[in-house]
Sequence to fold (265 residues):
Amino acid sequence: MGFLESAILGIAQGVAEWIPISSEGITVLLGEHLFDGVTLTELIRLSLYLHLGTFFAALIYFHKDVLGLLKRAAHYKKAEKETQKLINFYVIATVISGVVGIFMLKAIEGLDAWLNLTTKSVLIALGIMLVTTGLVHLRRRGGGGRSASNLEVTDGIMAGIAQGISVVPGISRSGFTVAALLLRNINDALSLKLSFIMSLPVVLIGNIFLNTSRFAFTPQSFIGLMLAFGFGLLTIHILLKVADKFPFGWFMVFFGLLVITSVWV
Fold:
């Protein structure tokens, strides 16, 4: 793998991880065109490795939130109600996504054709629901959804299920989790933030257990990792700025259209 190929894959991972397009699908697709004689398994491991770049991007961008939550988790009973709800959300979402993810991975075997059709149907239905809900919000001209102080156990369960289902090839983790949170009427900026932070334990655990001993570290792969990190930081920043500038309803419509478009990307 040359430096140019690594750079292309790193940039693709940095951008695609945070928008409603399967970053794994994009990097595997690009890898098939860029490399000769590389197996699908090797490409998936490369994609998982590049996820470390976007992992560190989210970790650094939200380092104050992550450190604050870890410190307060040690004194959970004394923490503020809003902080307790955030901790509950991340713990529930992580556990549920792990259980659902394992179940989905086992179910995937031998069901490729059926899953491909089902995945597209689910994404189209999800996109239509987001667009419809967004238009309803715009007609009401109401507020921008629920805040962190209003998080419920159900929110963590739904986000965890969405993240677990996203192990299916072709489903964007960020797209599916953000969509689930938006449909739970959580405001747009918070939905993005919750989705980005809840990806951290999943990506880290995935690399430790699935990739650490089998991926060969090279200067070329390091370039890909750094570009995934840099473009991941930039994309997170842009998305959060966009979420602050647009009304909640328009954000839902925009995100819904992106989810529908991702079916053909």
